[in-house]
Amino acid sequence: MSVTVVAVDFGASSIRVCRVELGDGAPHVDVVHRVTHAPRRDTRGVLRWEWDQLTTELEHGLERALVDGPVASIGIDTWGVDYGLLGTRGELLEPPISYRDDRTSSYRDVVERIGARRLFEICGLQPLPINTIFQLAAHDTQPLARAAHVVMLPELVVAHLTGEIVAEPTSAGTTGLLDVTTGDWSAELCDAIALDRTKLPDILPAGTRVGTWRGVPVHLVGGHDTASAVLAGARSGEAFVSAGTWLLVGREQARPDTSVDAQAAGFSNERGALGGTRLLRNVAGWWLVEECRRGWGDIELDQLLADAGAAPPLDVEIDVSDERFLAPSDMARELCDAAGLAVTASRATIVRTAVDAMAVTTANLVRALPSGAEPDLDGIRVFGGGSRSSLYLDALRRRTRLPVAVGPVEATAIGNALVQGIALGTFADAREARATLTEQQEVAG
User: CB neighbours of 383 closer than 8 A, spacing ≥ 6?
Assistant: First the structure.
């Protein structure tokens, strides 16, 4: 039995609305609407998402998806950590603030107040300034006090479409407020930042139907885009790399690892879309190249990568997990400084440096993954838009000396759609859904 669903993927740089056909064969993804976007500073200098524009583009995309034929369901995923404040009538009180705003520069004060070890034991996340717990700790008290609900972005979109106010485990898992053991909000961590626990919605599992939009059922999916991507891309016995704006490097496992070793290595425990844990670390990815492109006037990416492939690699070890790469004013200069390059270095050399640095950091993280009771890793699978880059794949293969499998490129949309397929009864479970993906995989090298 085949079925068509709509997978909406809100990325931090583009929105995509996709019709996805599911059934006995491999999923077929048709991107019916795509638009780029970026946060903008308001009159007070706060970096915010242009939410009215984003929801207008979302509805335009959904309308286009329905023009092409009936659909059985809609699912929403977005990037993690950001949130919106809703009033008592469900109204948005202010445009959501971007995680790249600098308001969390003193986040370490919160970490010290809770205790780094205690924080990791409860939420299982590496403390990054972008985590929701630190954003909320820095939020202006007046709008936060007026808010009836603090809603993560995937469910903020769901609320816009359906009026239903809920939470979902994978997006909740990016906040630093979720107890990784119980799967519920942590009263201790909420108290630590003086957040009223009742402002956080009840958590419902992926696959739950939460209202309709124009008569089409809306289902929760892996609301955090990485969770959706990993559902489609990860395989047992392989490390995974979800390659996009961020590189998410890790492995799937049954239970969280909040050991001292995992904490020292900087790994986070994130909820799987359909259960289990993604033990991973997120580091700067293609954001490095995209920020350089933006500074150079958005020149054509394919030509940049071709030129970079002809440039000689540098014998330097740059760690792109360094916070210096989160939001520098000039990414090209930051890369040159890190690599010891002259400011007159060619664009090809700078891009080659960025891609090699991504491969070096990925390889180091794969080697650092705690094994515990998990099987040894016999390969790496790279999926998402960044998996198209042979330059990155070749560098990763050289650095790890492991087989590198590729795909699917559209992992996020496919993972989003697979959860909808399970909710609709097209697939019995994740194993059956993933079995349809085998013919999409391509081994590189």
Answer: 229, 232, 233, 240, 241, 242, 243, 406, 407, 408, 409, 411
